[in-house]
Amino acid sequence: MSKIKPFQTQLSMLLLYFALSFTIFNVYTKAYAATLNLTVSTNKVIYNVGETVTVNGTLTINSTPVSDGIVAVQVIDPKNYLHVIRALPIGSPTNFVIEILQVYLSDQEGNPKSSVKRGTLGYVTIIWRNNDNADHYTSITLYLYYGNNQPFLAFVPFSGTVRAGVTQNMTVSVPIPSDAPLGAAFVCSAAFSNLPSNNGYAYCPEKSSTFTITFTSSLSTTETLQTQNSSGTYSINFTTPNRGAVLGNYTVYASVSYQGQYTRKTCTFKLILVGDVDFDGKVDMTDVGLVLRAYGSKPGDPKWNPNCDFNGDGKIDMTDVGIVLRNYGNYGTY
Ligand SMILES: [Ca+2]
Ligand SMILES: [Ca+2]
Questions:
Q1: For residue 9, pLDDT beyond 90
Q2: Any idea what the Cα angle at residue 111 is, between residues 106 and 114, rounded to 5°?
Q3: How far does the centroid of ligand 2 lie from the alpha carbon of residue 313, in Å?
Q4: Which of 62, 213, 226, 235 is the most buried (most CB within 10 A)?
């Protein structure tokens, strides 16, 4: 028995050494090297009008998926207008400094409504609260999109200081386009320290509700929706309209404030009008004519027009004619 003891002592010393160094290492990484890592990307770099853009990314701290974060995602169109603004829960975040309590379609006085006629002015009421015992500068956002996933309105109806413990509400008008698709639509609101493009972050996950865009007045129910994302990842998507989109380079911002650290990442994508040979913003008979004129040509030929080679295979053939015909009638603005 006594012969084994030195070995046991050595072993326990060794274990103690490992335990100590492991603890010191952990303290060290927590205090000095907690690396917050946010990624953002789109599933494609170039989209044709009518395609769906998917933005996704990950949020980790020390390579571990975050289970209680909020990622802000903002998309700016080529004319620098707000296109999409979201605040996505990563896992199950709690304890929000500023919180959206409700957002819903309403009348001008803030009474809930379930439907609005297209081509008229609708109203949206937002209620938010400062849960903290300090004042906070806040930007409240509104983002509306159709049931077909096309964004149609994104703006900041309120920016200012929200006093400690105070609940505020606001009713704002939202023009419903006369060409709006009938049926379900969605309104979404979140509270930010500032927009991600201005180095801000989301205070809370968004709240959203659904309403109906009608041809004439009718009734339907309004339900509140809550976005869910699993730990460490987020994803949103939106569809670009094939008629009336702003063409060019879009910028996507993603930001997060987590455990005292702030990080922001950006990526870009381009929206193009496939089939628009003369770049006048519409695919019409002129473009079909230009493709037919260049038909059968390859680089170097007098008839060759690189703008007509939509699939980039170095020849203008039936495939390119098919592409211009398939996109016929689409339009957008450069
Ligand atoms: Ca054209
Ligand atoms: Ca071709």
A1: no
A2: 45
A3: 5
A4: 213
- Same domain membership, residue 309 and residue 258: no
**Cα–Cα–Cα angle for 142, 147, 150, rounded to 5 degrees:** 65
Residue 218 is which amino acid? S
Q: Ligand 2: distance of its center to the CA of 206 in Å?
A: 45
Q: Which amino acid is at 10?
A: Q
Q: Estimate to the nearest angstrom the gap between the alpha carbon of 309 and the chain centroid.
A: 32
Query: What's the 292 CA to ligand 2 centre distance in angstroms?
Result: 12
Per residue in 209-239, pLDDT tens? 999 999 875 554 555 665 667 889 999 999 9
pLDDT at residue number 226: 59
Provide the Cα torsion 212, 213, 219, 221; round to 10°.
10
Task: Judge if 89 and 6 occupy the same domain.
Answer: no
Range of the domain at 5: 1-33
Q: Which residues of 145-157 are buried (b: 16+ CB within 10 A; e: fewer)?
A: bbeeebbbbbeeb
pLDDT tens readout for residues 166-195: 999 999 999 999 999 999 999 999 999 999
Question: Using alpha carbons only, how large is the chain's radius of gyration in Å?
Answer: 27
Same domain, 170 and 307: no
Span 277-286, average pLDDT: 97
278 inside domain: no
Assess whether 85 and 125 both reside in one domain: yes
The CB density around residue 167, as the number of other CB atoms within 10 Å, is: 12
Residue 182 lies in a domain: yes
